[in-house]
Design a protein that fits this description.
The protein is mainly α. α1 packs across α6.
């Protein structure tokens, strides 16, 4: 899942838990090799030194639980398969491993639908980062051997100041984000025919994905009983 998807899955959990659910993806955006495991190991032993660290660790654990469930769920598998088929049919030009855009576009499509149905997710995403940033988030990530507190703070400035989540509201923004990711992974951008094929899949599957997503989110919370008291659905 992508950022807004993880935020939505965490529902009405305390803000520190929600930030933890976002953190693995934020670390990956900051530095691809920065994984959350060193932070989980450190704060699992020293959480008493930073009030709220245990809540972030719980959020990280929930993030990984969601991703494990998501990549075997119909909401992901059916949509990614439809996108992969559509991309192949639209163009056979080399330079594109079609599973990668199908995977990422599925996650961006879910963020798109979540933002359409509940626009306040955008403000909640940025609000959580700003609220927890100095007192909890920066001290928490500074324990990571690959994270420098100053550069991570500057990274958060770009995330919050850029307001890139707004791009997910429109197809054009999703496609632009997709092309940036493809370049990052050494692949070509989507051709116009491929972009049209993506738009067709999105239009055809919107209702089904909404229904599948609701089922997935409820089932995923129910399979994570350790933190059930933190994961009540948002009102």
């Amino acid at each position: 899942m992508n950022l807004i998807g993880h935020l939505a899955c965490a529902g009405a959990a305390p803000e520190a838990v929600r930030v933890g659910a976002l953190l693995p993806d934020l670390l990956s955006l900051y530095r691809r090799k920065a994984r959350p495991q060193p932070l989980v190991a450190h704060w699992g032993a020293h959480a008493f030194g930073l009030p709220g660290a245990d809540a972030i660790v719980a959020g990280i654990s929930f993030h990984h639980h969601v991703d494990r469930e998501f990549h075997h769920a119909p909401v992901f598998e059916d949509t990614a398969a439809a996108l992969q088929t559509a991309l192949r049919a639209a163009s056979d030009a080399p330079g594109l491993k079609r599973f990668l855009p199908a995977h990422i576009l599925t996650e961006l499509f879910i963020d798109h639908l979540l933002l359409l149905d509940r626009p306040e997710w955008e403000a909640e995403f940025y609000g959580a980062l700003e609220s927890q940033r100095r007192a909890l988030l920066l001290p928490f990530v500074s324990a990571h051997p690959l994270v420098h507190a100053r550069t991570f703070s500057e990274f958060l400035d770009r995330i919050v100041g850029g307001r890139f989540v707004a791009d997910y509201r429109e197809l054009e923004g999703i496609l632009e984000r997709m092309d940036r990711v493809l370049v990052r992974f050494g692949q070509r951008a989507l051709e116009p025919a491929e972009q049209q094929a993506v738009a067709g899949v999105f239009a055809a599957r919107a209702g089904t994905v909404r229904a599948q997503l609701g089922t997935f989110m409820a089932a995923t919370r129910s399979k994570f009983p350790a933190q059930a008291q933190w994961l009540e659905p948002a009102a």
